[in-house]
Design goal:
alpha+beta, 30% strand, 5 helices, M1 Pyruvate Kinase, Domain 3, three-stranded antiparallel beta sheet, seven-stranded mixed beta barrel
């Protein structure tokens, strides 16, 4: 049975979908630009985390790019390769841990604390990331990612934008669960 947000109950997912689970290790916001700084909790509304601003609102933000998610594992990998990064450096609102980012797809829904999000697109690295190294963009994104090919070895490394399906409060250490909508049975899709 779907809940009020159109997401089937856990039993339905166990039978019909792939559920990936992790945690939110850091929530980030800024007054515009990079880096974003940690906050303990935030209210996620239609346009993102309340109080989070964008240096270039014509490029970043808006309903389809309300939230940017980056995996902590990507930050660790890039740091091991010599990039001076930290959580929030890439401009993400939510730094996650434990979700296999290569398995996320456009249209997947994520329960992040009290909010329900839907992946809209991979993030294309912006020019501002050059402050961390000229080659960073090539390390996290390639032509296949730009062509929306989830088989790219860099799929998910640049992060994912998400729209807000259901607003809510998110806190550090909250659970984040991803439900792969592509594998939900047709009957359940009618209710989402």
């Amino acid at each position: 049975m779907p809940d009020r947000a159109g997401v089937p109950d856990a039993g339905a997912f166990a039978r019909n979908s792939t559920c990936l689970q992790g945690s939110i290790v850091q929530i980030n916001a800024s007054r515009g630009g990079l880096p974003k700084h940690p906050i303990a909790s935030g209210y996620i509304g239609e346009l993102g985390i309340e109080g989070d601003l964008h240096a270039h609102p014509q490029i970043h933000g808006g309903p389809a790019k309300a939230i940017l998610l980056i995996a902590a594992e990507v930050v660790h990998d890039l740091t091991a390769r010599g990039f001076s990064l930290f959580y929030g450096a890439l401009g993400e609102n939510l730094t996650t841990q434990g979700i296999a980012i290569s398995q996320l797809r456009i249209g997947d829904r994520l329960r992040a604390g009290g909010a329900l999000l839907e992946i809209t697109k991979p993030r294309g690295p912006c020019q501002a990331l050059r402050i961390y190294g000229e080659s960073l963009a090539a390390q996290i994104c390639d032509a296949r990612v730009k062509a929306l090919d989830p088989l790219s070895p860099r799929w998910g490394m640049s992060g994912f934008y998400a729209r807000v399906v259901e607003p809510g409060i998110v806190r550090t250490n909250d659970t984040i669960e991803s439900y792969n909508r592509l594998s939900i049975s047709p009957l359940l899709q009618e209710h989402s």
